């Protein structure tokens, strides 16, 4: 699958097992200008440490800028039940050598997009940093190529019947972003559940013939997925996991393997049962308000999985 052009991105993340794989995918298929971290799957200190560890494991020098330690209004909530207390449970984590480039992710996002236009912001954690950046510098939305989000859903939730974790963890931030006027691509759970890993993928990573002798990246990801499949077996009854965050990277690097629909999307902030829900208006054009989001509906999972696996190697 030919890459049409190499997009420049800033990856905002909360590693997190699938975030770690998304970093590898971004390193392979984008010009990864920088990584910003946010509280989400784990507290900020751990998501920042985990992002540094993954870049160190890959041997890449991408700067990591630490961001928000808590949501705009909601309490800081985490997902240790899925990702473990460390946020990257499974593999033995190497000693950390790298340090954050700054503790001001928002300044990095605003300054970088002022000096270079057409950067994609790829947001795969709660949208707190992106919302802060948009509120600090509203013109940002005119300078960037767009915001590719792993978040929300057209119907099914995960942390509640209707809410997906990244939006649910900071719905006020998601509301700011969806109202911002930016070009937005949304890979919700309706999409990401089409890209599933299982133990056959773990076996491929462990047995791959192209592994560099003594290579560490493929075994690291195999251990991440082995742990994640175990958690999914406990929580959902099967040893399979959705590769949520890589979808938001692929929506920028390989949009041709997706189908999108332009929809009006709002975030529910007040509903007792529905707070954090992305309300996707699928009525006909004459009834629905003007679209503000390119909602991803389909992905080619076979092509997507091969692209993901091709990015899991020593860099
Ligand atoms: O709901 C899935 C999202 O929540 C993914 O970004 C995963 O990393 C977690 O943050
Ligand atoms: Ca994430």
Sheet with most strands: strand arrangement: 3-2-1-4-5-6-11-9-10
The major pleated sheet works out as: 9 strands, mixed
- What structural class do helix, strand and pairing data support? alpha/beta
Give the termini distance in whole angstroms.
Answer: 20 Å
Q: Which architecture name does CATH use? A: Alpha-Beta Complex
Itemize the secondary structure elements and their pairings.
Blueprint: E1 8-13, H1 17-29, E2 31-37, H2 44-58, E3 64-66, H3 80-83, H4 105-115, E4 120-123, H5 128-136, H6 140-143, E5 146-150, H7 165-169, H8 171-178, E6 184-187, H9 189-192, E7 196-198, H10 199-207, H11 217-236, E8 240-242, H12 244-253, E9 258-267, E10 278-281, E11 293-299, H13 301-310
Parallel strand pairs: 1-2, 1-4, 2-3, 4-5, 5-6, 6-11
Antiparallel strand pairs: 7-8, 9-10, 9-11
The structure holds alpha-D-ribofuranose (RIB) and calcium ion.
Calcium ion binds next to helix 1.
């Amino acid at each position: 699958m030919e890459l049409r052009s190499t997009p420049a991105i800033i990856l905002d993340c909360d590693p997190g097992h699938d975030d770690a794989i998304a970093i590898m995918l971004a390193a392979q298929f984008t010009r990864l200008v920088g990584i910003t971290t946010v509280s989400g799957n784990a507290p900020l200190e751990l998501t920042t440490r985990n992002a540094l560890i993954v870049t160190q494991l890959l041997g890449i020098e991408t700067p990591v800028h630490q961001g928000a330690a808590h949501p705009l209004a909601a309490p800081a909530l985490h997902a240790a039940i899925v990702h473990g207390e460390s946020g990257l449970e499974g593999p033995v984590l190497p000693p950390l050598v790298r340090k954050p480039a700054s503790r001001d992710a928002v300044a990095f996002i605003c300054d970088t997009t002022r000096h270079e236009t057409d950067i994609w912001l790829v947001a795969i954690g709660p949208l707190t940093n992106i919302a802060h950046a948009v509120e600090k510098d509203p013109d940002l939305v005119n300078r960037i190529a767009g915001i590719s989000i792993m978040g929300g859903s057209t119907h099914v939730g995960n942390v509640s019947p209707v809410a997906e974790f990244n939006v649910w963890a900071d719905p006020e931030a998601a509301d700011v972003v969806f109202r911002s006027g930016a070009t937005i691509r949304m890979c919700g759970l309706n999409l990401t559940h089409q890209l599933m890993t299982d133990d056959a993928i773990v076996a491929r990573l462990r047995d791959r013939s192209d592994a560099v002798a003594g290579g560490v990246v493929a075994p690291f990801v195999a251990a991440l997925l082995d742990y994640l499949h175990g958690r999914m077996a406990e929580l959902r009854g099967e040893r399979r996991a959705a590769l949520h965050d890589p979808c938001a990277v692929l929506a920028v690097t390989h949009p041709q393997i997706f189908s999108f629909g332009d929809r009006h999307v709002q975030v529910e902030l007040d509903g007792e049962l529905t707070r954090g829900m992305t309300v996707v208006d699928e009525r006909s054009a004459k009834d629905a308000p003007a679209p503000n989001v390119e909602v991803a509906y389909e992905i080619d999972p076979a092509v997507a999985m091969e692209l993901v696996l091709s990015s899991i190697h020593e860099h």
